[in-house]
Amino acid sequence: MAKLGDHAKKLLFCGDMSDIQFAVGRDYDTVKIFPAQKVIMGLRSAVFHTMFYGNLPDPCAAPIDIPDILPEAFANLLSYIYTDAVTNFTPENVFQTLMCADKYDLPLLLALCTDFILGLLNVDNCLHNLDNAVLYANAAPDVLVKCLCLINDESAKTLWQSDQFHVVGQAALQAFDPRDALTAAADDIFSSVEKWVEFLRKVRDGITFPTVTTPEAQVTIRFSGDKKALTSDTTRFRFELPSNVHVSGVPVGKFVKMTVTVDGRSETQCYTPISDPKDRGFVDFAIKVYPPNAANPNGSVVSQCINKLQKGDEVCISGPYGLLSYDKNGIFVIKANEKSAAEYKEIRRIGMVAAGSGVTAMIPILRAMLKENLEAPKCSLVYSNPTDQDIIMKSELNYMASKYRKRFKLWYLVDRLCNPSLWKYGVGQISKDWLKDWMPKPDNEVVVLVCGPKEMVDNCKKLLLGLNYINDMIHVFSAP
Fold it and tell me: What are the φ and ψ backbone dihedral angles of 88, each rounded to 5 degrees?
């Protein structure tokens, strides 16, 4: 006879008998919905018990938003609650899993996290992990102790001269006891602290460290090894920026050129970052891989090359490029061409038409616009794909359409269906009727953004002009 715990394992990540949902993840990543059962969550955690069965407002009306935790870390939390085990610890998610364990009062999960981190720490990564070690010192004191021991180790002298030293936080710097027998020379320590103070001054003054600043200069970035499948042919790749304090430098609505070396020659493709422009230390791209085919015998050599990257492999980016960017509060910065002056234009209604990976140009604008929590601008997106399984970042788009339903309308179009019984959207090509139904009516406070394959873009622009839009109302994302 199966034990109660065996039945609980079957309910992990399962919608059966679910009476609560969690919407986990930041806006820049795919928000993931986790179904759960209140009784199991409440039995394992006193915090969840109070949340669900205490004198708090009923949280079941909508998914509970948890934007400050990675979906992978929350999945580890649920795995422990339902199975007493975690099999997916990684260096990227373990500290956030530890935060979950501390936040939801799960001491045995806390111990599992601590053991994994202690096994992970070494001279090469102790400085990188010091901020987290200090942040969670009360929950996992052994981690901080090991970090400091490694930093004080004879083999770690070069850490004090490292360009990375100035990125540690103030609390981490204060963790050093001046009475410790530090092995580094006093001059090296003083020089490092000077760099740290200078960096802190820049942060206080609002100075950022953009990676790309001009199209004329290429910057080298490294593949972090972190990638996530979005569809069968599209993957999210994460690249490390020059330091942990750098941001991408790409304004919302603009894009970069990515250059790779293939058989000794340089090949270039344009991509829009899908991570938040303010994210420090990394940048994400959604790359759709185009293999060779009858119409294009070579396919996209850049996407094929990126798909084969190994951790530590380098690519070059330059930029930012583009004639349009989103500023804030419905204000777009638009140029007629590369040489013309930029104009600031207030937009009240935004239409978006995307096909395939062209949606990546729309995602950053949607995030920036919706998070402002204003009544305007309002937006509608028509997004076309070959099948319902080719929709990139579908979970996040659905989440935004649900959470911001008064401001964002979403309509999918596909050529054919893989799951007809689950489909509630359109079938067919982008047409004049679809655009008439879903795009805002043309006026001076409207812009329609278009991104996709050239044939789709040309057809869409022709259809929009036939619906009385003028050229100034239509913006096409195109490579320079």
Answer: -125, 35
Copy the structure tokens of residue 149. Answer: 């021991």
pTM confidence score: 0.72
Say if CB 411 and CB 438 are below 8 A apart: yes
Q: Are 306 and 298 in contact (CB under 8 A)?
A: no
- Residue 125 identity (one-letter amino acid): N
My answer on whether 337 and 467 are in the same domain is yes
Q: Sort strands 343-346 and 331-334 into parallel, antiparallel or unpaired.
A: antiparallel
Buried b (16+ CB within 10 A) or exposed e, 207-236: eebbbbeeeeeebebebbebbeebbebbbb
Question: What count of Cα atoms within 13 Å lies in the side-chain half-sphere of residue 201?
Answer: 6
Give the chain's largest Cα–Cα span: 77
CB-CB contact of 253 with 307 (8 Å):
no
Q: What are phi and psi of 51, to 5 degrees?
A: -65, -40
CB-based contact 356:288 (threshold 8 Å)? yes
Of how many residues is the chain composed? 480
Separation CA 191–CA 185 (nearest Å): 10
Same structural domain, 250 and 380: no
CA atoms within 13 A on the CB side of 448: 27
Domain of 114, in residue numbers: 4-120
In tens, the pLDDT along 15-55 reads 778 888 888 886 545 678 899 999 999 999 999 999 888 87
